[in-house]
Design a protein that fits this description.
alpha/beta; binds nicotinamide-adenine-dinucleotide; 2 domains; Rossmann fold; about 40% helix
């Protein structure tokens, strides 16, 4: 009988996490380090990345903090060099940097017709360009050694667009498309030992969506927040911890034949038609 438990072993794996100081990816970084990975926490905000790396080290794990702007290829290349200087190579990339902003979201005060192009562009860039550039830079290292793993962050808004978040929905659909595209491209051209997948988290109450889901004055769910809970068969928002088991699975040999997949972690949201 195969040692299934052993297949989840990621001891010594060198993992770079962009947006690693954020709510979801800092939880992933901590879990991965607790399971023996060497984690490079890459973030635009170096001080926040230092905090996450510091917390990992305080718990006996291995981590470094690296400043990295995922929208600037030079900055990503510098970050990649820093990871290689520290750990000798890189095995895995998590493209965690991403998000939405109020100015790219329709509301009673901001119609579709008035959405500013620069805000829409900001969201496209952060989610799509910010996933492609690190995949080029870190993926090249993987292509050279013919082994590696890339994990992207898609969203529920990629399957069917969510109301209001026009740019974010289109951008995350792009991330899902890129995940499938790169999985095929990398297998056909570089190696059958490099995998590319994505998580599609459901609704997690974080800074990027707090203004949409929680009434600033009362702290109670907005109508949209309540609609989401009502449309989630499990009847709640996710917690960052809910992503961790699937992350470990996708980054370990336990998922060795899973490639080009976008995995919903959504309490059943995407399975429910509403009726
Ligand atoms: N929160 C949710 O409900 C949810 C749902 C589905 C998908 N996601 C996706 O999961 C990922 C993480 O989300 P989160 O809620 O933890 O977000 P977050 O805002 O807490 O974290 C994002 C991190 O990315 C960093 N960042 C921003 N711009 C950057 C840049 N140019 N270069 C490098 N780093 C940059 C930020 O400093 C931050 O630490 C995002 O891609 C997000 O779109 C979130």
């Amino acid at each position: 009988m195969a040692d299934i438990k052993g297949q989840f072993d990621i001891t010594g794996q060198i993992i770079a996490v962009t947006g690693g100081a954020g709510v979801l990816c800092s939880a992933m970084a901590k879990m991965l380090a607790a399971h023996g990975a060497k984690v490079a926490v890459l973030d635009l905000f170096e001080d926040k990345a230092q905090e996450v790396a510091g917390a990992i080290k305080a718990d006996g794990g291995e981590a470094i903090a690296v400043k990295c702007n995922v929208l600037d290829k030079g900055s990503v290349e510098e970050a990649c060099r820093a990871v290689i200087d520290a750990y000798g190579t890189v095995d895995t990339l998590i493209n965690g940097a991403g998000g939405n902003k109020k100015e790219a979201t329709t509301s009673p005060d901001l119609s579709f017709f008035d959405l500013p192009a620069d805000a829409v562009q900001w969201v496209f860039n952060l989610n799509i360009i910010g996933t492609i550039l690190p995949s080029q830079v870190f993926g090249k290292v993987m292509a050279e050694k013919k082994k590696g793993n890339i994990l992207n962050m898609s969203s529920m808004s990629a399957f069917k667009p969510l109301t209001k978040v026009l740019a974010y929905s289109a951008a995350k659909a792009g991330v899902s498309s890129f995940t499938m595209w790169l999985a095929v491209h990398i297998s056909q051209n570089y190696s059958k030992e490099i995998r590319v997948n994505a998580l599609a988290p459901g609704f997690f109450l974080t800074e990027q969506n707090r203004f949409l889901l929680t009434d600033e004055k009362t702290g109670k769910p907005t109508q949209r927040g309540q609609q989401i809970i009502d449309h989630t068969p499990m009847g709640k928002y996710g917690q960052p911890e809910d992503l961790l088991g699937t992350t470990l699975w996708l980054l370990s040999p336990a998922s060795s034949f899973v490639h080009g997949a976008v995995i919903p972690i959504d309490g059943g949201f995407s399975a429910y038609s509403g009726v």
